[in-house]
Give the backbone structure.
Amino acid sequence: MRLSKHTVAFGTLLLAVTVAAPATAQDFRPESAECIAPAKPGGGWDLTCRATARLLTEFDLIDSPMQVRNMPGGGGGVAFMYTVGEQGENDDLLVAASGGTTLMLARGELPDVTSQDVRWVGAMGADFPVIAVRADAPWQTLEEFLQQLRDDPRSIVMGGGSAIGGTDHIRPLQLARAAGIQDVRNLRYISFEAGTAVTELLAGRSHVFTAGVSEIAPQFEAGEVRILAVMAPERLPGEFSEIPTATEQGYDVVGPNWRGFYAPSGMSDEAYDFWVGVLEQIETSDEWADVRLQNGLAPLWMAGQEFDDYVNSEVATFIEFATELGIIE
Amino acid sequence: MDALFQLADGFAYVFQWQNLLIVLLGCVMGTMIGMLPGLGGSNAIAVLLPLVFALGLEPAAALILFAGIYYGSEYGNSISAILLNIPGTSGAVATTFDGHPMARDGRAGTALAMSAVASFVGGTISVVGLMVFAPLLARWALHFGPAEYFVLIVFALTMVSALSKGDALKGLISAILGLMVATIGLDPNGSTARFTFGSVKLYDGVDFVVAMIGLFAIGEVLMTLERVRQRDQLVTLVSRASIKLSEIKKTVGTMLRSSAIGFFIGTLPGAGATIASFLCYIMEKTLTGSRGTFGDGDIRGVAAPESANNAAASGAFVPLLTLGIPGSATTAIILVALVGLNVRPGPLLIGSNPEIFWGLVASMYVGNLMLLVLNLPLVGLFVRVLMIPRWALMPVVVVVSFVAIYSLNNSSFDLLVMTGLGIGGYLMRKLGFPIAPAVLGLVLGNLLEVNLRQAIALSDGDWTTLAGSPITLVLWLCVAASLMSPVLPRLLSKRARNV
């Protein structure tokens, strides 16, 4: 099967060279494109796959529609192992991923694989983590909050959606580190589910919400919470533009929880360049801007080698913190 | 006053013929999908999601469709629970306790009609609750933190002693088996793999739908296989496919109590229909004492869980619509759908999109009524399922189970798990272990652990937090009462005799 796929791809390439005008990255056309969403229908990964598949057809970027397959299990682990193993050479496959995928790899949850066992294709949007407190909380600025964290670290309970050592845990630790707090193990973080992290903040049982801005947007709009900082490279658009970034307050921490894709490590360079190219065309469209808005995502575009390097460096950061926290050895 | 006008607007919206059709479509599809073992409202909505986007339905219309499916599937679940002893979702497990004995007794029609009426009452009362109390309840639910949840779940688990007919020890063992299976997978806090034997496929643990279908459906099929050569029908059939007014009268109190409690429990994110239905069943059983025939086909044993799980279904909309936080798997999918339609539920929804909130309330009224009108005449048709000879019916159950479970996660591994648990369920039946406590343990095990860990983390290691609020204290009292419940009626009757 693999052989024939390559043969056909080669044939297409020949055809392109002989019949059409000479081209470069456009030589590759997928014949049976597939997107794996490593979760049940309805989640973020599923929507990323489905929106991409829809726009690929709408913009006439592929010949036959991209199939979307749901492969839940192990927080994306089942799909990752499948991609590394059985699908290692597939040129037609994209798998939806996010910051959480990086984390799973950093913690070594999957036996004998690393982030370098796939090719990271691109990120097409991101949810940025925030430091949000209740409207009646004593802290008006990030500095005031970090000051109390320095003075009395055990007095503050931070809550987010990810597990211990996850993004919602590590980002505030990076902030604390930037603020000169060395012993990050002493800081309290509780892992809630995304929804309950909001209720625990509103109920006052936790003091700080550290997950993505999209999760707490309704409460922000209603004036029930104050967002002290967003860990984004620049201010977010629209109603969120009044939120200062951490960087502009002197703490240089940027931590996008990106949404994007990886592909099998054996994917050919032609195919990889093709996918980076079509994803860029989608990402810059107005239609994709709508998709981002519906999913509470801010714009973020990183692709190709730059993105591959970024993911691998993120994994290194997570491993560093996780080791310090005693989660991994 | 303002609210009444808005409600009237809501009704005006629902009574447009397109929207009436949508409610009808939702109810019919929900009932049909709910009847299939393993498939519930969340599956139906997930499947329909792309269709809704493609049709370009307005957000309010989409919400109406989803609400119809949700109610319909709750009702549909009870059909297979009563007729085949195979609950479609965990919310209908309690319905099997008396519903199936009634069916075996030749009163399948009565049980189904009772279920329709009880669902209607539960649905309608809770819609009134949603309308009047939604903003208030959202605040109330905030007081329910991890410590409170933990005790509530302990309370639910203590009920197994009351559930097991005869041998309470066997009920306890069954519940602990369920709790043990619930620990399989990545530990929810630190992501350490437990009992996964190096297989990534076990990282998410055993899906409780897979377990439930294995234990109930496959286990039941294996039991039936033993008797397949006997030529008797599954149950005795009775011509009457309806319910007597006197029987409804007998259950009025049960339905009212169960609806109120079911609604309150439904408003707590995460708790939902399962706890509500078990709790109300036990409560009614305890209240009735020795005067009832609970466990052997008491009609109140159908009325209680059915009003409770429907009331909980609307209760789950409270946190969704007022806080933007889904309280159940189905409302989680509805949240995704709404966000996809550019509506973000939250504290501002009722103010900024009143047509959505009031349209939903109105469609719930209409949907409930429609379900009743639709299903009462169909009871006679549903009962005919029982006339199908076992050698033909059971293979169909197996096929539907396999298809449903495969469609859940596209995983053939799940089929193995289901089959394995089916054999386990068969052995449990042969040895006289009740199945329901195992399912309860499996459904609640993970919640129990997560909430305990969160509560202890929040209190920074102080265990007294578990009894640190008025709500927890009340719940501990309930735990004590529940543990006493098997002996309590006997004690009371003894005293009565002595006097």
About this structure: Residues 2-233+251-498 of chain B form one domain. The radius of gyration of chain B is 22 Å. Chain B has a mean pLDDT of 82. Strands of chain B lie at 185-186, 193-194.
